[in-house]
Design brief:
- The complex is a heterodimer.
- By secondary structure, chain A is an alpha/beta fold.
- Chain A has helices spanning 7-11, 22-47, 155-173, 178-195, 198-227, 232-302, and strands spanning 54-61, 72-75, 78-88, 94-101, 113-118, 124-129, 142-150.
- A 7-stranded mixed barrel of chain A has the order 1-4-3-2-6-5-7.
- In chain A, strand 5 (113-118) and strand 6 form a beta hairpin.
- The radius of gyration of chain A is 64 Å and the shape is elongated.
- Chain B has 9 helices and no strands.
- Chain B is an all-alpha fold.
- Chain B has helices at residues 4-12, 15-38, 45-87, 91-132, 135-141, 146-182, 189-199, 202-228, 237-264.
- Chain B is elongated and about 70 Å long.
- The chains are: A alpha/beta, B mainly alpha.
- At the A-B interface, helix 1 and helix 2 of A face helix 3, helix 4, helix 6, helix 7 and helix 9 of B.
Chain lengths: 314, 265
C-alpha cells in the first residue's frame, strides 16, 4: 500500500472541495473551446481564399523550375494571385494554373505580359505587367505564354570562362611557366648588377663628382669675368650712359626739325594767298590781250601790205 | 480487460519482450478507451459527472497561466526573429518564420507537455493509487467498470485540455506576432492574412491538426495506461508515474519528428 499523503497525491489536480456551478462553467469552457477552434478554422478558410470568387489563369512555359503550389503572382509588387496547380501539358510545356480573386482580376488585361523570373538569390517569382489598362479584361480560364528569365542559366557559361581564366593563370605561374622564367632572369640580372658592375658604377660616380668640381671652378671664373671690376658688366653700363646722351641729342634735333616744319607751314599759307589772286591777274591779262588783238586788227586794216594778219602773243 | 498472455510474457520474458509488451498494452488500452469514448452507453450518470468535473478542473486552472506563458514566449521569440531578420535584410521572411516556429511547432508541443505535467501524469498516478488501495476491485464488485468511470473521464479531460490550451495559445501567439511585426494598426491585416494562408496550405494544416490530436491522445492515454497497469518495473506508484513520463516523451518526440518530416520534406 502507498502512503496516502505522498507528493503525487498532493499534486493531483482534483481539489478536495467541490466547484460551484461546475456544469455551467464546464459548458462555458466547452463553448469557448468550440468557438476558438471554429473561429480559427473560419479564418484559415478565409485566408486560403475559400470565400472569395476567383477566376482562373493558365500560364504556359517551357520550364517551371522553382514554381511551387501556393506561390504568389504579383502585380506592381502586390500579390494578386496564387498558383493552384502545376501540370505538364500534352505538348510537353508546363501549365501553371493560377487562381486570381475576381476583385483583383481587373488588373489583368488581354495585353498583359507575364514573366517567370528565377533570381540568383531567393525564389522564383511570377509577375504580371499591364501596359494598357483600358484594354478588355482577361477572360476566365485564359491561357497566356509566360516570358522566362533565369539568372542561373548563365552560371555555367560564367563558370567555364572562370575555369579557362584559372587555367591560363596556372599555366603562366607554373614551375616551367614564362612568368617564372622572367622572374628568374630578372633576379639573375639584379644579382649580376649587384656583384660585377658595382665597381664600374662607383668609378662613374667618382668621375661625375670630379666633373662637378671642375664645373664649379669654371662657374667662379665666369663670374669674375662678367661681374668683376674689369668685367663685361661695367663696360656695358658705360655704353648705356653714352646711348642715353645720344638719345638726348637726337631729341634736340627733332625739336629743331619741328620748328622748321612750322615755318614751312607759314610759307605754304602765303603761297595759298598768292594763288587766290591768280584768276584776277589772268582776267586782266585776257582783257589786255583782247585790247591788243583789237588794236592789231585795226592796225592790219590800216596797214594793207602786210600778208600775215596774225599777231603773235608772247 | 484481462490480458493474461501479456502478463505472462511481461513477467517471464526478456527485457525487449517486456518492453514490447508494455507498448502493446498501452496501444490496446488506448484503442479500447477510444472505443469506449465512442460508445454512448459508456456515458452513465456517474461517468458524465466525473467527465464534467475533470473537464473543468483539469483545464480551467492552467489555461490562463499557460496562455500567459505562451504570450511571453511569443513576444520574446518574435522580437528575436524580427530583429535578426531585419539585420540580415530578410524581414519579409520573419513573419512566416515566427508563425512556423511558434504556432506550428513549439506551442502544440509545449501545450501537450504542460497538460501532461499538470494533469494527466498526476491523474495516472491517482489511478495507480486507487488500483492499489483496492478501490477498483470494490468498483468492479459493485458492477461498475473502473476504466469507464475513472479512467475514461480523466483521459477525455486530458485530450480536451491539450486541444484547448493549444488552440488558445496559438490564437494568442498569432495576435501577438501580428502586433509585434506590424504594431497596433489594422493596416497589416491583408498581408498578414495572405502570409497565414500561404503557410497553412492543406497539407500543413492537416499535419498540424493531426499532430495536435495525436499529442493530446499521447499525453492523455499513456499516463493512464501506466497507472492502470504495471507496464514494467517494481509496481510502485512513483515508478509507474516515471515510466509513463518516459514513454510519453518518447511518443511526443516521434510525433514531432514525423510532423517535421511531413512539413519540410
Amino acid at each position: 500500500m502507498t502512503d496516502p499523503v505522498s507528493p503525487l497525491t498532493n499534486s493531483e489536480p482534483a481539489p478536495a472541495r467541490p466547484v460551484r456551478h461546475l456544469e455551467l462553467k464546464a459548458a462555458l469552457l466547452l463553448a469557448f473551446t468550440a468557438l476558438l477552434i471554429a473561429g480559427s478554422v473560419l479564418y484559415l478558410l478565409y485566408a486560403r481564399g475559400v470565400f472569395e470568387a476567383k477566376q482562373q489563369l493558365v500560364l504556359v512555359t517551357d520550364d517551371a523550375e522553382g514554381v511551387a503550389v501556393g506561390m504568389d503572382m504579383t502585380f506592381s509588387g502586390f500579390p494578386i494571385g496564387r498558383v493552384r496547380k502545376v501540370e505538364l501539358a500534352e505538348t510537353g510545356n508546363v501549365k501553371v494554373i493560377i487562381d486570381v480573386p475576381t476583385k483583383d482580376a481587373h488588373w489583368l488585361r488581354t495585353s498583359s505580359v507575364f514573366t517567370l523570373v528565377r533570381g540568383l538569390v531567393g525564389g522564383t517569382t511570377i509577375k504580371a505587367f499591364t501596359g494598357v489598362p483600358t484594354d478588355p479584361p482577361l477572360a476566365d480560364g485564359a491561357e497566356r505564354p509566360v516570358l522566362r528569365g533565369d539568372a542561373t542559366s548563365e552560371l555555367p557559361q560564367v563558370l567555364s570562362a572562370a575555369k579557362e581564366l584559372l587555367n591560363n593563370m596556372a599555366t603562366i605561374t607554373a614551375a616551367d611557366g614564362e612568368l617564372r622564367a622572367t622572374l628568374v632572369n630578372l633576379r639573375e640580372l639584379s644579382d649580376r648588377l649587384k656583384t660585377r658592375d658595382a665597381d664600374r658604377v662607383a668609378a662613374a660616380v667618382d668621375r661625375a663628382n670630379s666633373l662637378l668640381a671642375r664645373l664649379d671652378a669654371m662657374t667662379a671664373k665666369a663670374d669674375t669675368q662678367v661681374f668683376g671690376p674689369d668685367g663685361v658688366m661695367k663696360e656695358t653700363r658705360a655704353t648705356v650712359v653714352q646711348l642715353n646722351q645720344l638719345l638726348a641729342d637726337t631729341r634736340a634735333s627733332l625739336a629743331k626739325v619741328d620748328a622748321l616744319l612750322v615755318e614751312a607751314q607759314g610759307i605754304g599759307a602765303n603761297v595759298r594767298g598768292a594763288t587766290n589772286d591768280l584768276p584776277r591777274l589772268r582776267a586782266d591779262v585776257e582783257a589786255n590781250l583782247h585790247k591788243i588783238e583789237g588794236m592789231i586788227d585795226q592796225l592790219n586794216r590800216k596797214w594793207p601790205f602786210a600778208h600775215d594778219t596774225e599777231v603773235k602773243v608772247p | 480487460m484481462s490480458t493474461s498472455w501479456q502478463d505472462r510474457v511481461g513477467h517471464a520474458g526478456s527485457a525487449p519482450l517486456r518492453w514490447l509488451a508494455g507498448w502493446w498494452r498501452i496501444l490496446f488500452f488506448g484503442s479500447s478507451l477510444l472505443v469506449l469514448a465512442a460508445t454512448p452507453s459508456s456515458y452513465t450518470r456517474e461517468t458524465r459527472a466525473a467527465l464534467v468535473h475533470h473537464l473543468y478542473v483539469d483545464t480551467a486552472p492552467i489555461l490562463w497561466w499557460f496562455t500567459a506563458l505562451a504570450a511571453l514566449l511569443t513576444l520574446v521569440i518574435t522580437r528575436i526573429v524580427v530583429v535578426t531578420a531585419l539585420s540580415y535584410g530578410l524581414s519579409r521572411y520573419a513573419l512566416e518564420m515566427v508563425i512556423r516556429v511558434l504556432v506550428l511547432e513549439l506551442i502544440p508541443l509545449t501545450a501537450a507537455l504542460f497538460v501532461a505535467l499538470r494533469c494527466t501524469i498526476p491523474n495516472g498516478a491517482a489511478l495507480a493509487a486507487m488500483r492499489r488501495s483496492g478501490e477498483f476491485d470494490a468498483l468492479a464488485r459493485a458492477g461498475r467498470d473502473p476504466v469507464v468511470t475513472q479512467a475514461l473521464p480523466r483521459a477525455l479531460a486530458g485530450i480536451y485540455a491539450t486541444l484547448t490550451l493549444a488552440a488558445l495559445s496559438c490564437v494568442v501567439a498569432l495576435v501577438l506576432a501580428y502586433f509585434a511585426v506590424y504594431g497596433v494598426t489594422p493596416a497589416g491585416l491583408p498581408a498578414y492574412t495572405r502570409v497565414f494562408g500561404h503557410i497553412f496550405n492543406p497539407a500543413v494544416s492537416l499535419i498540424f491538426v493531426l499532430k495536435t490530436l495525436l499529442f493530446s491522445l499521447a499525453v492523455a492515454i499513456i499516463p493512464m495506461a501506466s497507472g492502470l497497469y504495471d507496464v514494467e518495473g517494481d509496481g510502485s506508484r512513483e515508478s509507474a508515474a516515471l515510466q509513463g513520463l518516459v514513454r510519453m516523451f518518447a511518443v511526443l518526440l516521434v510525433l514531432e519528428a514525423v510532423s517535421l518530416a511531413g512539413n519540410y520534406y
